[in-house]
Amino acid sequence: MRKKDKERRLEEEAKKALSRREFFKAGAAAGVSAAALGGSVAVASADHSEEAWDYEYDVVICGGGCAGITAAIRARDSGASVLVVDQNYDLGGRMLHSGSFLSLGGGDPIQKRDMAGEADAEGFITVPPVEDPAELDDSVELLFTDVTDWSVVDGKAQSPYRYNEREMMRAWAENCPPTRQFLMDNYVRFTRVSGTHGGGGLSRARAPYCFLMLGDKTDIKAGTITREDAGVADFERTSPFAPVQMEDATQFVGPDAVRNGVALARPLEFSAREKGVHFMLHRAFIDLIREKPFEGRVTGITAEYRPRVHPKSGERLESFWQLGNIDERRPNLRIRARKAVILASGGHAGNPEVRSMFYPAMRDPAFPTSGSALQGPGGQDATALKAALKIGANLAGMQQNLSYPTTYHIATTLGTRDAYTNMMPGHPTFVFRGSAGVNVGNAGFEEFIAVNQVGKRFFNEVRLPKRPAGNRYPGDGAAPGRGLEHKPLDWRNCSAEWIRQSYNYDHGLDAALAMNEGSRAPNYYSGPIWAIFDEDAIERTGWELRFPYVNEENGYFFKAESIEDLAAKIYARHPYQRVPLAYLGKTIETWNGYVAAGADPEFEREKDAPMYAISKPPFYALSIMVIWHDSYGGLRCNGRQQVIDMEGKPIPGLYAGGEAVGGFNKHGLGKGHVQGFIAGTHAAQEG
Amino acid sequence: METEDQEVEVGPHLVVTASPEQVEPFGEIILTARLETPEPMDVEGEVVFYDASGAEAGRAALAGRYAPEPLTAKLERMAPSEPGSQTWTARLESDDCDCEEAEFTVTIAPHPISVTVWDIPSAIEQGITFPMTIGLKCPCGCEVKGWSFRLLNGEGQEIAAGTVGDEPWPGTTSLFYTCIDLDAPSVEGHHEWAVVALPSEEAEVPHAERKLAVHLNVTRAPEVTLRIEAFDAATNAPVPKAKVVVHPYRGWTNEEGVAEVRLPKGAYTVFVSRAPYFAFKSNGEITEDMTLRAEMFEDREYSVSELWA
Ligand SMILES: Cc1cc2nc3c(=O)[nH]c(=O)nc-3n(C[C@H](O)[C@H](O)[C@H](O)COP(=O)(O)OP(=O)(O)OC[C@H]3O[C@@H](n4cnc5c(N)ncnc54)[C@H](O)[C@@H]3O)c2cc1C
Q: Which intervals hold domain FAD-dependent oxidoreductase 2 FAD-binding (chain A) (predicted)?
């Protein structure tokens, strides 16, 4: 077939490539054009409809992030032709944005390396292991026990492990060691192991970061990155290569090492492109095509062209690398998957309607998900959930959204909607953010009062950003015995006495989300919240209220000559300020009275921190964001990552991984990579 | 305010109410248009509202079936700032129903005056002279240069009066201010005074008088010195530029991490705070000169894995 020839040619070109820069520039020319592949290819349609397919591949993957790229490489390694469709202009999803703290375990190769006190094969790691050998001495059995431990209860009195899907967890534990090796075989370099990531178990240390070495050239094969690409050359800039500035990894590697999701996502993307995976960007998958509405195989998907366009220049954003990209701009496509479709398009954290299933107050679109600028509005919009539900899929772990401490929280970065990232100007999507925000830390919350949409205080400000600790090694208050002292499956872990002792959830977030005088039927939104302070606060703190940290144009920062002016500006210019801050003047007058009296009878602020009058003009408002970070409830899958229907049967030809999947209260990457690995393995083996 | 109930004419018509009856300048106004029809009928369409100048003020959908409730279209928006009563109009755009344009009244309250009072010391010793800066501003943009104010004590007696100057406060364009010196009350303790801003008779549009409470902490003469030495619990290094609050006294630590606060003997709560530390807190009786070592613990800085968990 003509298409096969094209694929082969692409692979050959990829193999010829030498260094990364030249290779991928050349790759741009070799990007598959719409004319070459985009013509409709009529095939005998498996779903017996007469409709033609626009493309066909063995494996079609929805979403090119953590689970998606992993699955793509894995399936490609088995000889399958693979297409990844992604709604964004570039690949990597939230993985690219992430801290790359990648928790696996079960005796994975990095645990073993550190246990033996060895360095990496390339010799980049010059520091000794961070953890003692005993803390790294892991097994699949112990990992499986840990991630299904009924007895562990966190500082919010929630149980993070007991509701996990058992078959899926078993498969996950077994596949952790090979997945670590697989990632290493695809150019990912891991630092020393240091603790474990949330939901990764309490018994052993299982998580390293991913790193690259600063060098003269960005070269994935050699493991180097320039200071500019890493975003460390200028504190106020990031690069198109790295949306978030990379962090110093000296402690875990040695001098000149930098870490974060860039050192994970870019190497995997490089490898996938090199191996001949095809990508269709700006392309949102919409629906699954199944032979019958609730029966038979999944035979493909429909996908829509949704270009991400720069709001000022009007130009379409383009991915950093192009090799393997299919430039296809027709509005709607039907794409056939000869073997399987893998859903890897992330969760529902950016879909207020779906979120409200768990917490009705979070139906308010005023509250975003993390990294919304990078991902765009389609990034976490629950497409996988919606599409799979339409063909009969079942759900799992929906209550688990409530049992991860950071699912939603109040960010300490103020003055930006996208408050959960360090992205700076220089990255093409900074424009959707408009400001980087001011990270005031926990301590900064004593400098202001926090008011709701009508201008009333609602909680002790200094307690707003506090978060209960995660459930992870070495314990963090999640079990009476910390570190190696932790006893899995011990009833004392959840004795009432222990929970009373360890409970540490302040309900400030819930007070922020409470109904107030501005909440109206039918949704009764609580609305935005604001940090209000005066010129004296600037003098006390030295906060730099200038671009790129704040932006007077984007509606998340205001400065005014009087409190009344400030209220009027917020009401006029913040996109979600639906009502005036009618009480703001009175609130400040009252507050200044409390400051003079040294006591706050409403919220007892004087017990935790000093209080300051808000009196010296000009006056300021910075948005405070409630952020829904990630998703835990999602599609039910079995140990092969096949999506299970309402009758308990796998839906033939349909797999899922990452945040699209429920029943595993493990945060982030560790879940996504292993599930992608498992899904890619089995999808490629389908008949 | 509901428009005069007009004689119901033959045929459908809109009745529009603006709420509240008198709305604050730049406050929220809710316009509700009700479609009255002699017979229940299905109508889909949009009501378009026009302000006093004839400019479109917004649109709201009208949809559904008349019975049992009348169809309504509701628009919530920011009110204009020009005070007084104005006539606005509303028109139904619909293929299902023709009806007359409706008039209704929108009434805007007089402009408020923003009163800002600053630079009052947090502790004022009995009988001394202390400063106060008073600023006035019209949030709707009227110039308040030279407008007057009165200062009332806790009993409501006038203890000072004055006008703001011709120059705006540095860094502002229309916050006019004056600095005054006042005699502190002789009675120790908390005093609530008030500044009353008075509209100028020459103002082009009506303004409302505005009263702002002002709080004073009047203290005895200091008797003892509290020396605070702030240091990092992990490194023992001094913590400079930390805020020291011994209510109502305030200070800063110097480069050596030291602050000295003079105060009368008594019971106090001492806070020492500065990012990125947890606020240090200590309660106690201060009866003589004393030194307090403020051990500052770093607010457990979130690791990337926690922060970006
Ligand atoms: C700032 C930040 C820091 C983080 N740090 C860590 C960390 O240190 N450790 C950790 O374990 N986890 C971390 N995480 C979480 C982790 O990145 C995610 O949980 C993980 O990437 C989820 O994998 P995924 O494959 O489900 O989704 P993603 O990696 O987000 O990939 C989903 C992809 O699908 C695409 N997509 C979405 N909808 C559609 C559609 N309809 N059609 C086509 N494509 C679509 C998206 O554009 C995206 O590219 C972090 C997340 C963020 C935002």
A: 58-666
Count of residues in chain B: 309
Establish if A484 belongs to a structural domain: no
Domain at A532, CATH number:
3.90.700.10
Listed residue (A622, A570, A594) closest to A436, CA to CA: A622
Res B240: pLDDT: 97
Q: Which of residues 24-53 of B touch A (CB under 8 A)?
A: 24, 26-28
A651 and A613 in one domain? Answer: no
* pLDDT higher than 70, residue A70: yes
Percent of chain B with pLDDT over 70: 92
- Consecutive H or E run containing A59: strand A55-62
DSSP string, A361-380: GGG-TTS-BTTHHHH-TTTT
Give the whole-number percent of chain A exceeding pLDDT 70.
93
Is A118 among the domain residues? no
- Domain B13-108 falls under CATH 1.20.120.790: no
CB contact under 8 A, A616 and B119: yes
Identical fold, B13-108 and B114-219: yes
Mean pLDDT of chain B: 91
Number of domains in chain A: 2
Residue B220 in contact with partner chain A when CB distance is under 8 A? no
| pLDDT of the residue at B302 | 57
Q: Which residues of B touch A596 (CB under 8 A)?
A: 122, 190, 215-217, 248
| Ligand 1 pocket, residue B305 CB under 6 Å | yes
CATH tag, B224-296: 2.60.40.1120
Contacts of B309 in chain A (CB under 8 A): 197-198, 405-406, 470, 629, 667-668
B206 phi, psi to nearest 5 deg: -65, 140
Region A345-358: mean pLDDT is 95
Please confirm whether the linkage preceding B70 is cis (ω < 30° from 0). no
pLDDT tens digits, one per residue of B136-179? 999 999 999 999 999 999 999 999 999 999 999 999 999 999 99
- Give CA–CA dist A417/A440, Å, rounded: 15
- Give the domain ranges of chain B: 13-108, 114-219, 224-296
User: Residue B130, CB half-sphere, CA atoms under 13 Å: how many?
Assistant: 19
Write the CB contacts of B271 (distance below 8 Å, at least 6 apart in sequence): A609, A610, B243, B244, B245, B246, B279, B280, B281
Other C-beta atoms closer than 10 Å to the C-beta of A44 total: 6
- A509 within domain boundaries: yes
The pLDDT of A270-292, averaged and rounded, is 98
Indicate whether A307 and A389 sit together in one domain: yes
What fold does the segment set B114-219 form as a domain?
Immunoglobulin-like (2.60.40)
User: Tokens 């948005």 sit at which residue?
Assistant: A623
Task: Tell me what ipTM this predicted complex has.
Answer: 0.92
* CATH (domain of A640): 3.50.50.60
Helices then strands, each counted (H, E), chain A:
20, 24
Confidence of residue A554 (pLDDT cuts 50, 70, 90): very high
Name the residue type at position B11: G
Domain that holds residue A53: 35-96+270-404+629-685
Ligand 1 atom having least distance to the Cα of A375: 47
